[in-house]
Amino acid sequence: MKLISFTSPCSFSGTILGFGFVLCIYFLFCLYDTIGYNSNGLLFMFQGKGLFAKKSIKKGDSIFIERPLVAAQFLWNALYKYKACEFCLRALETAEENARRLSGNPGLSLPHPELCCVRPELHQACPQCQVMYCSSECRQAAADQYHRALCLGPSQEDPEHPINKLKDAWRSMHYPPETSSIMLMARMVALVKQGQLALLHSLFRAALYDEHLSRWFVPEGFRSLFALVGTNGQGIGTSSLSQWVHACDALELPAQQREHLDSFIDQLYKDIEKETGDFLNCEGSGLFMLQSSCNHSCIPNAEASFPDNNFLLHLSALNDINPGEEICISYLDCCQRDRSRHSRHKILRENYLFVCSCPKCVSQMDELDVTSEEEEEEEGEAEGETEGDEMEDEMTDV
């Protein structure tokens, strides 16, 4: 297994990562025909955009693990007390604290508390602005890469500070469910800015400032940066409670204890659904070099997940993948993939600016060009007004 990173596991050099980030922007803006290999046996070809297997990959295999070039928690998610590490988005609440908040039950106690992976004794705050990190390593990495440029210090709670105004404006335009964050873009700019400040005597730094940083502040450059994040950003979700549940599932227990534990967890999720709804995780987004080179398919052969409770992305095979076969993910969720071809194309055009020609879409070319909602409306009209009214009531209840 290879951890894909632009820094070594022990190094958090802002200069090195800044250079890797610039390379990412270079590849994403300039579609060069480049072929490369990694020790995982992957062939990734920047011919336009695409990632291909060099050797056979079995269903369930982990294809690669990648850390993002930059990541940020969603602003509404942070505002509503979903506590995450400012750098790696690791959930900071213990599983029990998380369960108490989500269920609205402050007296709740979880069995097997030793299975919680959160270590509060390792948490550290920025000494200037008090934002929290899961470890000293993450605090230092953030400081080296972008936080010195973005730290608000004593102005962290000042509504008149320009960055806080920016956050408020973004929240007023983007209500949950969130898909991106203006702070991801801010960190991208800050990351390059800090890298340049560390290379005052470098001609490369000076050229980079002129070509890549200043243009992001003019309207056209800002739109390019916004489009980059919107079309290449990957959602990230972390949860200490989810980690605890997975650990409980792996316990070997006598039948009666297993039944009791499963019943407890089932009831807990019912209580959480009643109190909180579907918003269970610390959520954010990140920009990943390899993952963003994966094309979309409505029948993907790979999917991304975050089992480490932080921003490390694991890409795993959903099916056996043959040498030379393209590795594809889906930009749509499971429900969206089940909708009509026209509905899927509408979502992809509006959000990712392309028309899908995957095998599923090609096989459905003869379908009527109507969205799934239109299909449902036609079915409702055919079955009569009464049944249509009942369906409308159900949708209102949801």
From TrEMBL:
<keyword id="KW-0808">Transferase</keyword>
<feature type="transmembrane region" description="Helical">
    <location>
        <begin position="12"/>
        <end position="29"/>
    </location>
</feature>
<dbReference type="GO" id="GO:0140943">
    <property type="term" value="F:histone H4K20 trimethyltransferase activity"/>
</dbReference>
<dbReference type="GO" id="GO:0045814">
    <property type="term" value="P:negative regulation of gene expression, epigenetic"/>
</dbReference>
<protein>
    <recommendedName>
        <fullName>Protein-lysine N-trimethyltransferase SMYD5</fullName>
        <ecNumber>2.1.1.359</ecNumber>
        <ecNumber>2.1.1.372</ecNumber>
    </recommendedName>
</protein>
<keyword id="KW-0863">Zinc-finger</keyword>
<dbReference type="GO" id="GO:0008270">
    <property type="term" value="F:zinc ion binding"/>
</dbReference>
<dbReference type="InterPro" id="IPR001214">
    <property type="entry name" value="SET_dom"/>
</dbReference>
<keyword id="KW-1133">Transmembrane helix</keyword>
<dbReference type="GO" id="GO:0032259">
    <property type="term" value="P:methylation"/>
</dbReference>
<keyword id="KW-0812">Transmembrane</keyword>
<dbReference type="GO" id="GO:0045595">
    <property type="term" value="P:regulation of cell differentiation"/>
</dbReference>
<dbReference type="InterPro" id="IPR044422">
    <property type="entry name" value="SMYD5_SET"/>
</dbReference>
<dbReference type="GO" id="GO:0005737">
    <property type="term" value="C:cytoplasm"/>
</dbReference>
<feature type="domain" description="SET">
    <location>
        <begin position="27"/>
        <end position="332"/>
    </location>
</feature>
<dbReference type="GO" id="GO:0140955">
    <property type="term" value="F:histone H3K36 trimethyltransferase activity"/>
</dbReference>
<feature type="region of interest" description="Disordered">
    <location>
        <begin position="367"/>
        <end position="398"/>
    </location>
</feature>
<keyword id="KW-0963">Cytoplasm</keyword>
<keyword id="KW-0472">Membrane</keyword>
<dbReference type="InterPro" id="IPR046341">
    <property type="entry name" value="SET_dom_sf"/>
</dbReference>
<dbReference type="Pfam" id="PF00856">
    <property type="entry name" value="SET"/>
</dbReference>
<keyword id="KW-0479">Metal-binding</keyword>
<keyword id="KW-0949">S-adenosyl-L-methionine</keyword>
<keyword id="KW-0489">Methyltransferase</keyword>
<keyword id="KW-0862">Zinc</keyword>
